[in-house]
Design brief:
Layout lengths: L4 H14 L4 E5 L2 H12 L3 E9 L2 E8 L11 E3 L8 E2 L13 E6 L2 E4 H7 L3 E7 L1
Antiparallel strand pairs: 1-3, 2-3, 4-8, 5-8, 6-7, 6-8
Length: about 130
């Protein structure tokens, strides 16, 4: 039984990036799909694809890899089931001075930190990626 599927998903991505793997297959959920799409928009992932097998679905994520190291250096889960972290639009942190991305779950959907700041909406601070 997984108590925090988002943390498990982020750990799969982190481990694959450290091991220079090219693909990750994770169980599908709308939240994981939205987070992966933001990572792709920000340039951390190459491809995000939904694989359907009957009534079960998986996410197939292709990581950007190079000869040495991919663009993902760290992924940190911020808001956890035991302690949720909510921020206003002005409190959304800049990760690594703007080089990384914060992912925020807002009333308008999942979006990156700089997009939430631009739209002036706050919400639950899910994770950082750099």
């Amino acid at each position: 039984m997984v108590t925090d599927p988002v943390a498990d998903f982020l750990t799969q991505l982190r481990n694959a990036a450290r091991a220079n793997k090219s693909e990750v297959i994770a169980p599908y959920s709308n939240l994981k799909n939205d987070i992966a799409k933001i990572f792709k928009q920000e340039g951390y992932l190459q491809e995000v694809e939904v694989l359907k097998k009957g009534n079960k679905a998986d996410l197939k994520i292709t990581l950007k890899t190079s000869s040495r190291r991919g663009p993902i250096t760290q992924i940190i889960r911020i808001s956890k089931p035991g302690r949720r972290r909510y921020v206003g639009s002005q409190e959304i942190p800049k990760v690594l001075g703007g080089l990384g991305v914060a992912v925020v779950s807002t009333s308008r959907g999942i979006m990156s930190g700089h997009e939430a700041r631009k739209q002036k909406v706050g919400g639950e601070l899910l994770c950082y990626i750099a």
